[in-house]
Hints:
Strand 3 (49-52), helix 2 (57-60) and strand 4 form a beta-alpha-beta unit. The chain has one domain: 3-Layer(aba) Sandwich (Rossmann fold), CATH 3.40.50. It starts with a strand and ends with a helix. The model has no long low-confidence stretch (mean pLDDT 87). It is built from four helices and four strands. A four-stranded parallel sheet has the order 2-1-3-4, with no helix packed on it. The protein is globular and about 30 Å long. 26% of the residues lie in helices and 16% in strands.
Amino acid sequence: xxxxxxxxxxxxxxxxxxxxxxxxxxxxxxxxxxxxxxxxxxxxxxxxxxxxxxxxxxxxxxxxxxxxxxxxxxxxxxxxxxxxxxxxxxxxxxxxx
Length: 97
């Protein structure tokens, strides 16, 4: 499963997702890419999941037109200590994915 960490998600979350193929927006040279183009790049590059904390994404884009799952962690911070708290529930959802 390929997961893309959005620019607003700290790269320090990546080691906590070691069972998956995880890339960051910055690693791929996509920093600053607007959400619509980022969604297209996700699809073109075979990502299954875009992991973000951007709660506005669902209101800014027509997400149904992109065949990629968007996971929005309900965090107000990108601190890894806070984001790892969401991972057990996130991983519980993956088998049904």
